[in-house]
Amino acid sequence: MTPLSRIVSGPDGAPTLVLLHGITGSAVSLAEAIDHWVERGYRVVAVDARGHGLSPRWTQARLERAGEVLVEDLIDVLEELATASRGRAALGLPTPPAPVVIG
Q1: What is the four-CA torsion angle of 45, 46, 51, 53, rounded to 10 degrees?
Q2: Tell me: the pLDDT tens digits for 27-66?
């Protein structure tokens, strides 16, 4: 699946928050929340949902199953974060706890 655009801020090994915007927003619309949580020591991953911001647009086939696709997109993001965490562990670097999704 095509990767979604995102804003990532904060230390790599910090606890991670995945922020999801509302229907008319984008990752940029979460700027205040990103700053708020990064200032408190979190790593923030703010995702542009499909069809928003710089993420890929909807195809007709995906639009027909939009709810499922949005869930699949989030699972892809979480799997990418898990892979990065395993890579950090393999290098002996600190690994954050499982991310918390806020949306």
Answers
A1: -120
A2: 999 999 999 999 999 999 999 999 999 999 999 999 999 9
CATH of the domain at 10: 3.40.50.1820
Maximal C-alpha separation, the chain: 44
Residue 23 carries which DSSP code?
T
Q: In what order do the strands lie in the sheet with 100-102?
A: 6-9, 43-47, 16-20, 100-102
Helix (H/G/I), strand (E/B), else coil: 59: coil
Count of domains forming the chain:
1
User: 24 is in which domain, residue-wise?
Assistant: 6-102
Tens digit of each residue's pLDDT (9 = 90 or more) over 77-90: 999 999 999 999 99
- First and final C-alpha spacing in the chain: 21
Mean pLDDT score across all residues of the chain: 94
Does the pTM of the predicted model rise above 0.70? yes
Two tokens, residue 28: 């940029």
